[in-house]
C-alpha cells in the first residue's frame, strides 16, 4: 500500500496508526520527503515521533529541507514501526512525504504441517559424511 501525506503551517503533523486488535505485522517505509509548490526558502525540519523500547516518546529529525539547497531527500525506504507521527518541527512547508505500508499476516500454526503427505512423498536426505583430513 502506498502512503502519502503533506505537512503545512496549518497541518503540522500526521499520525499513522494501525488497529490495536490487528495481529498482523506492519512495516511503514518512508521513501521521499520533498518541498512542494508554494514552499518558501526557509528551513523545514521534519521529525518522526515514535516510542522507544521503554514506551517513552522520542522525536528524531529525519529531514532538513530548504528550497534553495535541498528541496528533496531520499530516505531509501527508512523503515518504521507504527504508530508513528510525522511532524513539521520548523518551517511552514508544504512538505510531502511518500512511502509504503506493508502488512504481513501471521500464519495460523495449525497449517504449518501438512498431514496429507505420505511417507512415500517425503524426500529422504543422504547421510552426512565426516570431513576428510
From TrEMBL:
InterPro entries: Nucleoplasmin, Nucleoplasmin_core_dom, Nucleoplasmin_core_dom_sf
Residue ranges with Acidic residues bias: 110-125
Annotated segments matching region Disordered: 109-133
Annotated GO MF terms: chromatin binding; histone binding; RNA binding
Alphabetized UniProt keyword annotations: Acetylation, Chaperone, Methylation, Nucleus, Phosphoprotein
Cellular compartments annotated: Nucleus, Nucleolus
Keyword Glycoprotein: no
Gene Ontology CC annotations of this record: cytoplasm; nucleolus; nucleoplasm
Residue stretches making up the Nucleoplasmin core domain: 3-102
GO biological process: chromatin remodeling
Main location per the UniProt record: nucleus
Matching Pfam families: Nucleoplasmin (PF03066)
Annotated family: Belongs to the nucleoplasmin family.
Function recorded in the entry: Plays a role in the regulation of diverse cellular processes such as ribosome biogenesis, chromatin remodeling or protein chaperoning. Modulates the histone chaperone function and the RNA-binding activity of nucleolar phosphoprotein B23/NPM. Efficiently mediates chromatin remodeling when included in a pentamer containing NPM3 and NPM.
Subunit (UniProt): Interacts with NPM (via N-terminus). Forms a pentamer with NPM at a ratio 4:1 (NPM3/NPM). Two pentamers form a decamer.
Protein name, as recorded: Nucleoplasmin-3
Organism: Vidua chalybeata
Amino acid at each position: 500500500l502506498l502512503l502519502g501525506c503533506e505537512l503545512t503551517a496549518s497541518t503540522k503533523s500526521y499520525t499513522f496508526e494501525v488497529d490495536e486488535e490487528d495481529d498482523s505485522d506492519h512495516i511503514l517505509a518512508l521513501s521521499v520527503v520533498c518541498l512542494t509548490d508554494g514552499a518558501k526558502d526557509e528551513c523545514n525540519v521534519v521529525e518522526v515521533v515514535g516510542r522507544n523500547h521503554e514506551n517513552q516518546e522520542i522525536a528524531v529529525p529525519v529531514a532538513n529541507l530548504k528550497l534553495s539547497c535541498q528541496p528533496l531527500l531520499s530516505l531509501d525506504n527508512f523503515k518504521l514501526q507504527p504508530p508513528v507521527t510525522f511532524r513539521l518541527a520548523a518551517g511552514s512547508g508544504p512538505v510531502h512525504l511518500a512511502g509504503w505500508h506493508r502488512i504481513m499476516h501471521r500464519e495460523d500454526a495449525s497449517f504449518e504441517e501438512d498431514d496429507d503427505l505420505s511417507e512415500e512423498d517425503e524426500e529422504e536426505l543422504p547421510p552426512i559424511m565426516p570431513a576428510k583430513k
